[in-house]
C-alpha cells in the first residue's frame, strides 16, 4: 500500500512504473509519440524539408498536405497567403531536436512548428513509429 502511494505521488516513479507496465503488457503509454505540424511556402520547400527530416531519422512518416489558404498577423498587419502543411509522425522525445533542425533549414523567419501528443491509435502503427525513429 505504501509503495503504491509513493508511486502515485512521485511523477518520476509514476513514469517509471508506466514504462515498466507498458514493457510487460505491451500497452501504449499516451503521449509517447507526437504529430508535429510544419508550414511551408510551397510544395518544393515542403518536399525538401520532409526529405531532410526523414534523412536525419527525426520521423517515421511525413504527410505533405495540399495547398490551403492561411490568414495570420505579421508585423501588425493581417496577411493572407497559401501554404503547404507537413504532418510529421515521430517520438515525443525527438520534438525538440526536430524543432531546432527545421528552424535551421526553414526559409521563414518564424516557421510554424507545433506538436500534439498522440493519445491512442493502432498499436501496430505506433510500434512501427517507434521502430523507425531511433531513441535519443
TrEMBL record:
Q: Which named protein is this?
A: CUTA protein
Originating organism: Dasyornis broadbenti (rufous bristle-bird)
The annotated subunit structure for this chain is: Homotrimer.
Gene Ontology biological-process entries: response to metal ion
**SUPFAM superfamilies from the xrefs?**
GlnB-like
- State the Pfam families in the record: CutA1
Signal peptide start-end: 1-17
Q: Is the keyword Signal assigned to this protein?
A: yes
Which superkingdom does the taxonomy of this entry point to? Eukaryota
InterPro entries linked: Ion_tolerance_CutA, N-reg_PII-like_a/b, N-reg_PII/ATP_PRibTrfase_C
Q: Cite the GO molecular-function annotations of the record.
A: copper ion binding
Q: Family, per the entry?
A: Belongs to the CutA family.
The keyword Signal is assigned to this record: yes
Keyword annotations? Signal
Amino acid at each position: 500500500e505504501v509503495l503504491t502511494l509513493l508511486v502515485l505521488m512521485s511523477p518520476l516513479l509514476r513514469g517509471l512504473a508506466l514504462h515498466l507496465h507498458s514493457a510487460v503488457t505491451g500497452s501504449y503509454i499516451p503521449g509517447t509519440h507526437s504529430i508535429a505540424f510544419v508550414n511551408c511556402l510551397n510544395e518544393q520547400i515542403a518536399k525538401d524539408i520532409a526529405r531532410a527530416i526523414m534523412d536525419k531519422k527525426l520521423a517515421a512518416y511525413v504527410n505533405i498536405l495540399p495547398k490551403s489558404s492561411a490568414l495570420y498577423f505579421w508585423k501588425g498587419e493581417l496577411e493572407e497567403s497559401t501554404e503547404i502543411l507537413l504532418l510529421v509522425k515521430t517520438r515525443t522525445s525527438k520534438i525538440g531536436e526536430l524543432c531546432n533542425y527545421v528552424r535551421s533549414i526553414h526559409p521563414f523567419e518564424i516557421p510554424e512548428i507545433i506538436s500534439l501528443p498522440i493519445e491512442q491509435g493502432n498499436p501496430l502503427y505506433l510500434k512501427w513509429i517507434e521502430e523507425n525513429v531511433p531513441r535519443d
